[in-house]
Amino acid sequence: MSPRRTLAVAARVLTQVRRDRRTLAMLLLVPSLLMVLLWWMFKDSPVSPFDSLGPALLAIFPFVVMFLVTSVTTLRERSSGTLERLLAMPLGRLDFLVGYAIAFGLLAAAQSVIAVTVSVGLLGLDISGSVPMLGVVAVADAVLGTALGLFVSAFARTEFQAVQFMPVVVIPQILLCGLFIARDDLPAVLRAVSNVLPLSYAVDAMQHLVDSSAGGSVWGDLAVVVGFAAAGLALGAVTLRRRTA
Question: Stretch 99-116: mean pLDDT, rounded?
Fold first, then answer.
C-alpha cells in the first residue's frame, strides 16, 4: 500500500463527486433535510418525540446515504471496466479501497457537520453530551456505511442489484437498532441478532450522548463501530476482483 497512490485515488473520487452535482447535493444535504422533515412533522404536537428520535436518526441517515452512494459508485467502477484498468496499474487493492474510504470519509465528515449543526443549532435538538462528540459519532456512522457499501458492491453485477442489498443489509439493522423498541425488550433471538449488528452500537452511542448518566459508554460503542468499519474495508480488499464479470 502506497500513501501517494491512495491519496491519488481519493483525489480522483473527490473530483468525480464534485463534478456530479446531484450526488454531491445528496451526500451533503439529504440527512439534514430529513432531520428538518422529522422536526416539521412533530412541530405542532403537544409532546414532540424529536429529541428522543433525533439522535438515533442522526446515526441512521448518514449510514444509509453513504451505504447507498458508495455501493452504487463502486459497482459503476467495476461494470465500466475502470476498476480493472486501475488494478492493472501498480495499484494495490488496499490503495483503491482506502482511497475510496478517505474520499467518502471526508464527504461524510462534511455531511455530518451540516446535519449536526442543523439539528442542534437550528432545530433545537436537546442533548446533554458534547456537540463535537455528536459529530464524531455521526462521522463514524457514515464511514461505517461507506465501508459496508464498498464490501457489498463485490457481490452485485449491476447498479440495480447493488440497491437490492438495502433491504438485506440496511433495513434489518434499522428495525433492530432500538429505534422502534428498546433492544432489551426484543425477543431473545432478535436481541442476540441485534447485538452483532453495527448500527445498534451507532444508535447506542448517540443515545448515550442524550442520557448524561450513560455518557462514559459512548467510547465503547464508538470503538465497536470503528471496528466494524475497519473489518468492512478488510473484507472489501479480500473480495475485490481484478476482472469485471
Answer: 84
Q: Which residues contact residue 217 at a Cβ distance below 8 angstroms, ignoring those fewer than 6 apart?
A: 204, 205, 208
Residue 41's alpha-carbon distances to 48, 80, 122, 171, in angstroms, are 9, 42, 15, 22
Beta-carbon count within 10 A of 136 CB: 18
Which among 46-55, 120-129, 180-189 has the top mean pLDDT?
180-189
CB 77 within 8 A of CB 83: yes
- Residue 214 sits at φ, ψ, to 5 deg, of -115, 20
Question: Is the entire prediction scored with pTM above 0.90?
Answer: no
Residue 207, all three cell numbers: 443515545
What lies within 8 Å, CB to CB, of 12 at 6+ separation is 99
Residue type at position 5 = R
Helix, strand, or coil (residue 186): coil
CA distance 31 to 37: 10
Q: Look up residue 212 and give its DSSP letter.
A: G
